[in-house]
């Protein structure tokens, strides 16, 4: 009987990306026209492959003062994985500036999609109805107010006696 045809590329994406990365590097080195092309970023290559294969979605992070950033992430990702992808992308963009303290950022801010804050890090993006080309923004977390301590209050009798 017919033998099952093997895939031309091994399991996606690691082995495939390694081979593709090596071929692209050879192409850049051997082609004089491409000699001035900067070294490509493996993360960007992974993003392109994920997106083109249909296994990834594009999330647009809108920042009020600095414009929008496109982030490609696997479809079944959690909010925590999206936060990590945001950190990686923004660290790449801000490489020449000072390092961003993401632990502090996530203590003070959430990501939001529409009017809904993405508060649960373990929830998948699909559960929040994020689809391809969804726009998320940074929003400040609501402040947790400390309960007021019960101070020493004078009882009404003492207050009245002070005024008499």
Overview in brief:
Helix content is 36%, strand content 19%. The protein is α+β, with helices and mostly antiparallel strands and 164 residues long.
Notable traits:
single chain, alpha+beta, 5-stranded mixed β-sheet, elongated
CATH-defined superfamily of the domain at 55-140: Phosphatidylinositol 3-kinase Catalytic Subunit, Chain A, domain 1
Strand order of the largest sheet: 2-1-5-3-4
Largest sheet: 5 strands, mixed
List the secondary-structure elements in sequence, H or E.
HHEEHHEEEH
Cα-based radius of gyration, to the nearest Å: 26 Å
**Would you tell me which CATH topology of the domain at 55-140 applies?**
Ubiquitin-like (UB roll)
Structural class: alpha+beta
Q: Alpha-carbon distance between the termini?
A: 109 Å
- Identify the CATH class of the domain at 55-140: Alpha Beta
Segments where pLDDT lies below 50 for 5+ residues? 1-11
